[in-house]
Design brief:
The protein has eight helices and seven strands; from the N terminus they run E-E-H-E-E-E-E-E-H-H-H-H-H-H-H. The protein has 247 residues and is an alpha+beta fold. A hairpin with a 2-residue loop joins strand 6 and strand 7. The longest helix is centred in the first third of the chain and has 14 residues, at 33-46. The chain is elongated, with a radius of gyration of 20 Å.
Amino acid sequence: MNLTLKIWRQKNAETKGKIVNYSVADIEPDMSFLEMLDVLNEQLIMKGEEPVVFDHDCREGICGSCSLQINGEPHGPDRGVTTCQLHMRRFKDGDTITIEPFRAAAFPVIKDLVVDRGSFDRIQQAGGYISVNTSGNTQDANSIPVEKENADMSFYAATCIGCGACVAACKNASAMLFTSAKVSQFSLLPQGEVEADRRVLAMVEQMDKEGFGNCTNTGACEIECPKGISLENIARMNREYMKASVK
């Protein structure tokens, strides 16, 4: 395939960015989207030009770092996949593809297509942990009974990889889906009950401090989430927050 790429180029957070047009040829349909960008960068390096900076690590849909806005959609036109799992067979020969970083005030651009998602880390650090008894009188976790339904829901919430697609898809740049997933994975388990009230209050407070918008229940976050995190987690977090607030 021969493609035209319209890519956001930005030197750093302080400079103004712009869309730059590139052409790539002989792209195989079985290439991943990131492999296609690798081909482009090889061509740019051979010409003595600066390659396009984009984030990636595992390339297996696990780390969440490959987040890109592709033709206006987080992670591109496919569903249930991250950018590194998106294949070029989803596009046609001669297509024009617009590639941008995730857009949110809480995700400032570092360079080109890379954004700083440290805000997510700070939300988790505000309360995303459980107490561990190290007094010598510890209890085996396997001896604590957990209802299977709760265990399953906790597991599903824990599949969130923190990519930020929910924020990029939301018209308010809300982090409610991400934060609620991190709250839910602990609040559904008995081990998470010790810090439950403090956790939800601290994480929501940090989320607001980071400048994320509020939720308006449009559901775009769930649709674009590569792991299919449910909106039910937002409802659960709201209940947990209200309960903690009145105590």
